[in-house]
Amino acid sequence: MQEKIRLCHLYPDLLNLYGDRGNILALIRRTSLRGIDLEVESISIGESFDPDRYDMIFLGGGQDAEQNILRSDFVSVKGEKIKEAVAKDKVFLCICGGYQMMGHFYEEHDGHKIECLGAINIWTVGKKSRFIGDTVYSSDLFAESSVLYGFENHSGRTYLGDGVKPLAKVLAGSGNNGEDGTEGAVYKNVYCTYSHGSFLPKNPAMTDFLIRRALEVQKGVPYNLAPLSNEVEDFARNALPTCKKP
Amino acid sequence: MLHIRAGFAVMTASGISKILRLMGRGATTLPGRAALKIYPQILSQLSKEQKIIVLTGTNGKTTTTHMAAGILKARGYTVITNVSGANLATGIATTMIEGIRIRRRTEKAGGKVVYVIEADEAAFAKVTGPLQPMVCVVTNLFRDQLDRYGELVYTQSLIAKGLDATTARILLDADDSLVAALERGREDRVVFFGMDESSMTRNTVTNPLKSALSETTSDASYCSFCQTKYEYRARSFGHLGAFYCPSCGYSRKEPQFLVSYKEPSEQEKASAVQKGESPVKGPADVGFPVTLTYSGESITIGLPIPGLHNFYNTAAAVAACTELGEKCGDPALSFTGCAKEVGKVRPAFGRMEKIPVGSKSLCLLLVKNPVGLERTLSFVSQASDAGGMYLLLNSNDADGKDVSWIWDVDFESRSYPEKVFVSGERYGDMYLRLAYAGIDKDRMQAQPMSRCGDLLDEALAECEEGKCLYILPNYTAMLALRKIMVRRYHLRDFWK
Lengths: 246, 496
Description:
The structure holds 2 protein chains of 2 kinds. By secondary structure, chain A is of the alpha/beta class. Chain A has helices spanning 21-32, 64-77, 79-87, 97-102, 199-202, 204-219, 231-239, and strands at 4-10, 37-43, 56-59, 91-95, 105-107, 113-115, 122-138, 147-160, 168-172, 182-183, 185-187, 190-193. Chain A is built from 7 helices and 12 strands. In chain A, helix 1 (21-32) packs across helix 6. The N and C termini of chain A lie far apart (42 Å). Chain B is of the alpha/beta class. Chain B has 3 domains: 1-40; 47-342, Mur-like, catalytic domain (UDP-N-acetylmuramoyl-L-alanine:D-glutamate ligase); 351-489, Mur ligase, C-terminal domain (Protein-Tyrosine Phosphatase, Chain A, Alpha-Beta Complex). Chain B has helices spanning 4-22, 30-38, 42-47, 61-74, 89-108, 121-131, 146-149, 152-164, 177-180, 266-274, 309-328, 335-342, 370-382, 427-436, 452-462, 475-489, and strands at residues 52-56, 77-81, 112-118, 135-138, 169-173, 190-195, 231-235, 241-244, 257-260, 289-294, 297-302, 351-357, 360-365, 386-392, 420-423, 444-446, 468-473. In chain B, helix 4 packs across helix 11. The relative contact order of chain B is 0.10. The chains are: A alpha/beta, B alpha/beta. Chains A and B meet through helix 1, helix 2, strand 7 and helix 7 of A and helix 14 of B.
């Protein structure tokens, strides 16, 4: 029987900064190459979100002006349902602004606090200076490849509270806050990172991990994905300026 | 008479120019920088009582500036204009200073002088006050290197500031909701240009776009005034189209300067082939017929530079020159007079520039941001003479450090030339993007920037006779490649 994963792309018309769409394309590619049917549904402002309908939820980052448009819909209208999906172990991938909005609050550099969803125990403090550049992380989420490559571009500094683990350790770049050497966050099946754009395309092991987790939660049993060539991804990884040549 | 410090500023700048040129280097910004240091009012001093057009916007600035300059030249003006890329205050000051001699010479001979100045969006806010242009043009607003320029609403506010520092006639793209919103509070000075609704290709009713794999990115989905999602009667590309807000009623206004065209039908194309006539021209071809309409007059011209986005640039250039003519009362700049000339303009530096190399040719298409690249891919995929495509992606400061925007571009819903070549400092990123768009790795060759010249040779060697290799670099990649092309294929250098 053909496997099927339903992916909810939240606010694609507003949260679409810096190529976050690439992550969706990666999920489409590596499911379709395995004959898994991935159905992507877009849900935006005013549309209802049914946590039971989806195996995966994707939340990207947006410009401040656009994040302000959707914040009340996300926090007040869909908020409880999103939290319900988190509680039900649904697989989330949240990037940059989407990552920040899953936390308790975003404190702007003038001290003004913007309330966020509070679905995970993290918070963010905005600073004037931005962290921009290639990043390298090591992660122990999966065995296949512990090195993740990314590109960060953010002014918020995110801090992790109790019960939340970092997604990875920073080997190059700034990560969550430039202080504690952590990058991203994991809580239940919510995976967050500051690496946007081509995060999943560049890290096929991470893509596969999310696909596998989604199927495992759906079926309630461990699941093994059919192996797939990483040739084009490895070529791109080896061409990165941050890549450590053997 | 020049102010004494202004005189000194000009002398210094001219000296620097001479030295730089003797050293064989381009002198586009340093002289202006020195002059602005010595005499900050240099721009207002040199622009007194002059006819000036200033153009800004994300895409199409250089092409529209170039087209307007071409029209004005043909209508009897001596045109002073900044070279591509030199569109910051320093570059504009250099242009104004280098223009002094040209202006003196022209005025002595009884000629007319006009300045056509392209300004970066941030520079626009600073230079319009001192320049006091007669006409300002805002082409469009798309996301572009957000880490450098900041968010789009911020860019929009910079342009507003620049407009408010002048009493100029303002030309806005009616189909761009972000640009058209600048009309508010400036109604008496605004004139719109735009595309005829029935010509928009992504007409949501009769001609829906082939659906992309994943929802593609729009830069303005929500109303600038009330944050309700726009609806569209028809679309041209990106967020451009006949938008309207169902909540507050903000909507596209009918443009005074209108561009329209008819896409040839499959029947027409087939019948030309059958009769053995030359192939019917489409929007990707030079000379494709487009109609410009203003104030009850219509004129059909051959498209000077191909691609749908150039329909807008063509309309904007004609509108700018016509408005200038109205403002300064010059009958030589009638609408039909200007429209006739625009069809004869040839491409600007790095924009659809075709360079013959033996029996083949190279075409340089500068790509800097998602919509620019999307338009260019659309063009290349339609070009009947494409003998290869060569993408180069760099990430220097001038390009923007962050190249992840390539994932915002819809590569998926088009087909490309059989051979695809990739280079640039981020060749791995671009290679992966293309692979994920479904281009088989056997069709691709990717090499680091250090080998971009050799790859150019290979790409050209693999290009069929009579065909064209389309090269799509971003900014610093283009500069580097251009140097290599000058060396290897003995082409003239751009600042000479």
